[in-house]
């Protein structure tokens, strides 16, 4: 069912019905049981979308405390050609972690 692009649902017994599709305008979403991970409902769960600023913020909050801001990362062709907002990374160049995170957050 999760291969579909429309709305799919497998509600638990006694669960309230989903609101009408017009009240759920997001391009993609997923609702899961927090305890079991069972997917209860979704819309285009495997769709390819540009990352939201919220995801970028969560990435920064999670990784910045764990990474050395002065360590270097060498960009590959794949890195330089990722879909989404462009920061102008050049394949073969090395950038500090601080610079990469600054670019990621400022380009939002």
Notes on the protein architecture:
- This protein has 108 residues and is of the alpha+beta class.
- It is built from 3 helices and 5 strands; from the N terminus they run E-E-E-H-E-H-E-H.
- It has helices at 53-63, 77-80, 97-106, and strands spanning 7-9, 29-32, 39-43, 72-74, 94-96.
- The chain has a 3-stranded antiparallel beta sheet, with no helix packed on it. A two-stranded antiparallel sheet has the order 4-5.
- The radius of gyration is 19 Å and the shape is elongated.
- The mean pLDDT is 85.
Structural topology:
Layout: E1 7-9, E2 29-32, E3 39-43, H1 53-63, E4 72-74, H2 77-80, E5 94-96, H3 97-106
Antiparallel strand pairs: 1-3, 2-3, 4-5
């Amino acid at each position: 069912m999760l291969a579909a692009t429309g709305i799919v649902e497998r509600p638990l017994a006694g669960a309230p019905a989903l609101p009408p599709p017009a009240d759920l305008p997001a391009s993609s979403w997923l609702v899961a049981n927090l305890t079991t991970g069972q997917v209860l409902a979704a819309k285009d769960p495997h769709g390819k979308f540009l990352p939201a600023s919220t995801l970028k913020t969560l990435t920064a909050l999670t990784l910045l405390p764990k990474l050395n801001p002065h360590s270097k990362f060498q960009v590959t062709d794949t890195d330089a050609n990722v879909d989404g907002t462009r920061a102008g990374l050049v394949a073969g160049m090395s950038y500090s972690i601080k610079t990469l995170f600054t670019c990621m957050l400022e380009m939002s």
